[in-house]
Design brief:
The complex is a heterodimer.
Chain A (H helix, E strand, L loop, with lengths): L23 H15 L5 E5 L14 E4 L5 H11 L4 E7 H7 L1 H9 L5 E6 L2 E2 L5 E2 L18 H4 L5 H5 L7 E6 L3 H19 L5 E6 L3 H4 L3 H15 L3 E5 L5
Parallel strand pairs in A: 1-2, 1-3, 3-4, 4-8, 7-8
Antiparallel strand pairs in A: 5-6, 7-9
Chain B lengths: L3 E5 H11 L4 E4 L6 H10 L6 E4 L3 H13 L4 E5 L1 H16 L4 E7 L15 H6 L9 E3 L4 H18 L2 E7 H5 L1 E5 L29 E2 L6 H22 L2 E4 L6 E5 L1 H16 L4 E6 L1 E3 L3 H8 L4 E6 L5 H8 L6 E5 L8 H12 L1
Parallel strand pairs in B: 2-3, 2-4, 4-5, 5-7, 6-7, 11-12, 11-14, 14-15
Antiparallel strand pairs in B: 1-8, 6-13, 10-12
Helix pairs in contact in B: 1-2, 1-6, 3-4, 9-12, 10-11
The chains are: A alpha/beta, B alpha/beta.
Chain lengths: 248, 354
Amino acid sequence: MAIVFQKPKSLTDVPYHYCPGCTHGIVHRLVAEAIDALGIEGKTIGIAPVGCSVMAYDYFKCDMIEASHGRAPAVATGVKRALPDHVVFTYQGDGDLASIGLCETVSTACRGENVTIIFINNAIYGMTGGQMAPTSLIGQVTQTSPYGRDPKTQGMPIRICELLATLDAPAYLERVAVNSVAHVRQAKKAIHKAFQNQVEGKGFSLVEVISTCPTNWGLTPEKACQFVEEKMIPFYPLGCFKDKENGK
Amino acid sequence: MSEKVLMKGNEAIAEAAIRCGCRHYFGYPITPQTEIAAYMSKRMPKIDGTFLQAESEIAAINMVYGCAATGRRAMTSSSSPGISLKAEGMSYLAGADLPALIVNVQRGGPGLGGIQPSQSDYFFMTRGPGHGDFHIIVLAPATVQEMADMTRLAFELGEKYRMPAMLLADGTMGQMMEPVVLPEDTVDPATIPATKPWATTGTEMKRAHNIVNSLYLKPDELEKTNYERFARYAKLEAEECRWEEYLMDDAEVCVVSVGITARVAKNAIVAARKEGIKVGMIRPITLFPFPKAALAKAAAKVKGFLTVELNMGQMNEDVKLAINCAKPVNMCNRVGGMIPSADEVLAAIRKEAK
């Protein structure tokens, strides 16, 4: 019988620990598909973050390094400078990349470091039980914004792609989502491009993936996908924010 | 044999590191160690190496973490306030059992403190320079020659025991110029990663993936890593303690000092000997592991100890512990960037000899 669909080769057989309806699984798969398609598993080094995807090192078959909270881009820089012909990617959540590691994120982008960053934005700290993230929406109820995020005292959500697009150095910045089949297809293209850019030496590439956290949002997986469509995407518009090679 | 050259301590470290096969330096400017970064920024691009001025000390140590994970000889350097920021990274390096060189050219503290020499990070570096139960190798140079020699030793011990290693110098050591014979340039950087089968250099589809990690969610597994690490520390202590003894054969007073104060103390000891005072010195070279056995041996012979330090009495506690408080352990110290004169130390020795 012909195989029409199978697990990407660069994923291990370790079962994901993620909650039902969490989109980490989809994004892991898209990353692995890009690695497979480019034939780079043997020369790829991944950097796992602190957050729900902390154990990503168990899921990818390539060499993996666990970084401390927020420091993955600095760790990636250290690896890339040692192994410039290898492929280095980080996989980070919003607390990791947009809060505690914001300095590393901006500085790595500013250096135009030739690495790939997959940024999972689900507007919440999942692993610690649902606290307010730098990307939590206005009015969003979390464990540490129990009355809803109030811009007067808790500030406004941060738009990372737009922020990084002000820099000259990054090669590619795109925001995608994975809440529908059409969006997953677009996300797959963007993630592939972010890896291909690195292989071709084009420089810093970041894909922000609007993701879900049904558990901490208190929504069913289906409702969580609707929340992305109705609440997240209006604040975090999808699209390409920088694509140097195409003059954007 | 390399020729003798006149060099600043900080520059001797940088050149020695390059000659030991280090091709990756990540740092952030801070007085009084910035000459290391400046030297590296000049040399590294000429030898296909990496000099990277990081956005912070935190980023620099994490770049070292990533680079060390690939099996390269990687280093960073800083001074006391910057070392506080590196504490997180040192803990992760230790937790992932990664060797790397960290240089701390100490200045006075706490807080922003000052920029003059100090030895006040002694506790911080030797007790546990970060969260969790761990140590790093700590070496204390007292000459520019030792700054160079210990750079090689730090890389080698770090790799042998899979630990971060630190050169803990006081500001004077970093800033002073002395003649130095640099190590021979015999290490081919390309050959180093091959000696590290755990390194994340890409599987090349020839082996299972390597994971560099310090996370163990199962407590029994984490406990096991702690015990395994401390077994390595015990071996380190048994085999790698280093110290210098000076005029200790007939000594009744034992001065214990490191770095610049050990040199001041030597002058005071010479003067005291002229007065007929039987005084010698034990100069610990490894601060972790601390040469406890050498001090315990001395305790059986001397009347008392005198630590000469640029802090409020930090090594003093290690001496007391090493000799189990068998003899009095007094102190001659200055802090805040002040250095005791030989006369001050001599006066303390006289008092001790009474």
